[in-house]
Design goal:
Radius of gyration: 25 Å
CATH class of the largest domain: Alpha Beta
Distance between the termini: 47 Å
CATH architecture of the largest domain: Alpha-Beta Barrel
Number of domains: 3
Helix content: 25-40%
Number of strands: 31
Structural class: alpha/beta
Amino acid sequence: MEEYTSRDISRSRSKYKIFNKKISGPFTIPSGIVTTGISILEKIANEIPEIGILTTKSIGPEPRKGNREPIIAQYSPFSFINAVGLCNPGVEEFRKRISKIKISPDKFLLTSIFGSDEKEFKEVAEKLVEFTDGFELNISCPHSEKYGQVVGQDNAILEKITKSIVSLGKPVFVKISPNLDVKETVKAAISGGTSGITAVNTKGPELYLWDGYPVLSNKLGGISGKAILELGLTSVKKIREITDLPIIACGGISTRVEVERYKEAGANFFGIGSALAGMNTEEIKQYFHDLLIDLKKGTDNASSLLKEKLNMDYQKYTVRENKSLADDLFLLRLDGEIKIEPGQFIFAWLPEKGEKPFSVLDDVPLTLLIQKRGYFTNELSKLKENDFIYIRGPYGNSPKLNEAILLVGGGTGIAALYLFAKKYKKTAVLLGAKDKNHLPYLEKFKVLCEELYLTTENGEMGHKGRATDILPEIIKKTNPEGCLNCGPEAMVKMAIDIESQYLNPEKIYSSIEFLTKCGIGLCGSCATSNGYRSCVDGTFLKNNQIFHKSQLRF
């Protein structure tokens, strides 16, 4: 790869440089993709040297939940449409989180911020200035009614905002929209004193339909990935014609060829986001390693890790039975089967109502165990025979087991275990719930399992108490070589502490309910404490992938 020659950017034999800071590599992951959780940001910062610029998710003045799911759909191969809705914890909480992590000194932390006006941008920046190397101004998100592109379309306001943040003394990148006049936007940013340009944000807003229904809950979203490659290249060329400021290029980069095209267009650094869809943590590490080698040697090894199709298409099912088990629990049995491995999960979608992920209780026929918790699950509970529902997936991975195992389930965690019992014959099962009505599928479990142990909190069935109360006794009785846990976080943590006294921790896998919005690893909402994403690294993970050592007794 040739040495960069743009102002304030150079490269030594082993290092890259931005604003007089040596960094470890020429890549970043654009704002809002993968590194949205602080634990993921820290893990990637310290384990992927090729990523020299760390771009955070966009942070605003107040917490925002963002849009209801669905928030993402596959628009075309290697391309997506999304409307996350600027979901973020707010500047005060983000400040607390970012202050607690350690990032390698050879990284440039670029904190993305947004606001509705100059005052809000300044308020956010002032609270984060001591923890960042620079700011990226999000004036280009295309699907917000109050922020992003709505602000960026007024060049006078953009200039004022840029000047205001530049006055804090840290480098500033302005992230531009391809939907506006690129040159005029950049000129306003330059007038405001910007240090660099990030180009481009997503294209849109656009509408994406499936079976005639808008998929995104927001209806309109922004297009990313290969579909905007040419738009991104054109934008970078236009920017380079009017400035020699550093440019971070984003939009459709997945292989050496796109990096080289962007470099030829005038880019200095390269943001890669949509191409990471479906990759687990180890695959992302390998991808960036291979991509940098590809650039040096003219090879194309990184492309072997790209995933063109990600089970994002919806399949239509009809409800055959909706069986109430308790006031807050029901079984939804559908009219077809699904090909799925134990430990994987699916998303259920009701157009214009929403979408949520679920474990599959049974694959033949497709059966879901659902607890009523909010608006969407209440809507599911109202479905009647012959009503339709859409399913996408499966997602996640299945742990490879060849030994006698003990399945430990609590609450609706029971739903994730039946397929393991169905596949692995030498299983013992320990299930716990608050009462007998919350212990479904027992007759089927009894047929498959060598030993079945039950607990209820009210003593209606089995041992009175919790599953973890009798777990030591059951381990001694069954002498398993491995354990699989699924349930609430507190129950899983306690189970791990007990099991680790008897078993090799490498033989213990657990799944807890992390917030999961996309299923393909892009949104980062399912981050564990150790920076893994449960949707692509799990859902059943080893102890050290879920918890810090400080959180476990053993």
